[in-house]
Amino acid sequence: MPETVYKNISPILVIWLIGLIVCALFFLITHLRCRKEYQTALPVDNAFVKCWKRDHPTRRNVQIRQSDKIVSPLTYGIFRPVILFPKRTDWTDEAPLRYILMHEFVHIRCLDILIKLLFAISLCIHWFNPFVWLMYVLANRDIELSCDETVVRTFGETTKSAYALTLIGLEEKKSHLTPLVNNFGKNAIEERIVSIMKFKRTSSFCIVGAICLVIGVTTVFAASFQNNNHNMNLPEKFNSQYIIELSQGHHTGDLDPQNVFLTYLSEKKYKLEDFKLQQDEDMKRTYVYPAGNVEIQLTAYDVKTSNGDIVRVWDARQFSYHEF
């Protein structure tokens, strides 16, 4: 019995599972190794930090600690977030401290750690897809850019230069990158600086214009969809039933081609019915005939008219009829 089970397992599935396990172990081991180092961090007993925490209350208790295991600030933890500073931080230089604390506070408030975790899970599942790897890199970049933008918006555009200089100073000290903390690599610092210096507050006029554009495009597409459903040449009213051909392969199994009824219900309602299965209500098929030509043929789950138009077929077990 086990041999039969093993033979039925696809080699592709085995390869995918191996890749998933390898990626998951990489993230897990790296995260656990870093958390072990962070456990030695000590709380910061500083008047400025206490004042800052009092001015930035959150439902989650944000701890501010310092460690000799890191060289630049970072944030970790979802339910009990921790802002971790290097042990050699100059606590008397309050200006850059405000920028750093606000930057990490934005990460905490926006649950960026959780978002990064979800991206890591997606990467583990879709490790074989190069576009998912690209998504992972770009998503982490966008998280940092969004955080920078929020900080600049909070302190004002006049602080862009000072904030950028703070980032440069931190980047010079940085030596490594961990995947499940809010930190940033050296290769992207230039892009962050450029983005900060080019930042301009979005005007209310631009926001209103963008909203109007989205509403307008949505309305146009909705109207176009409705027109496509209504602008059909329906056949003229008739009292008798038309017989058309149902091609092989529509029903389950290898049934021979058979005839079906096309019946007039109202000016905009028609039904197509397999008369050989009328006695069995569960098997009866009811379809809609929206085109202007009676010479139609059913193939698989589509209706094809003589002029080549393809129309969706409706199953009687789900829809008794369909209006246009």
From TrEMBL:
<feature type="transmembrane region" description="Helical">
    <location>
        <begin position="205"/>
        <end position="225"/>
    </location>
</feature>
<keyword id="KW-0812">Transmembrane</keyword>
<dbReference type="InterPro" id="IPR008756">
    <property type="entry name" value="Peptidase_M56"/>
</dbReference>
<keyword id="KW-0472">Membrane</keyword>
<dbReference type="InterPro" id="IPR052173">
    <property type="entry name" value="Beta-lactam_resp_regulator"/>
</dbReference>
<feature type="transmembrane region" description="Helical">
    <location>
        <begin position="12"/>
        <end position="29"/>
    </location>
</feature>
<dbReference type="Pfam" id="PF05569">
    <property type="entry name" value="Peptidase_M56"/>
</dbReference>
<keyword id="KW-1133">Transmembrane helix</keyword>
<feature type="domain" description="Peptidase M56">
    <location>
        <begin position="8"/>
        <end position="195"/>
    </location>
</feature>
<protein>
    <submittedName>
        <fullName>BlaR1 peptidase M56</fullName>
    </submittedName>
</protein>
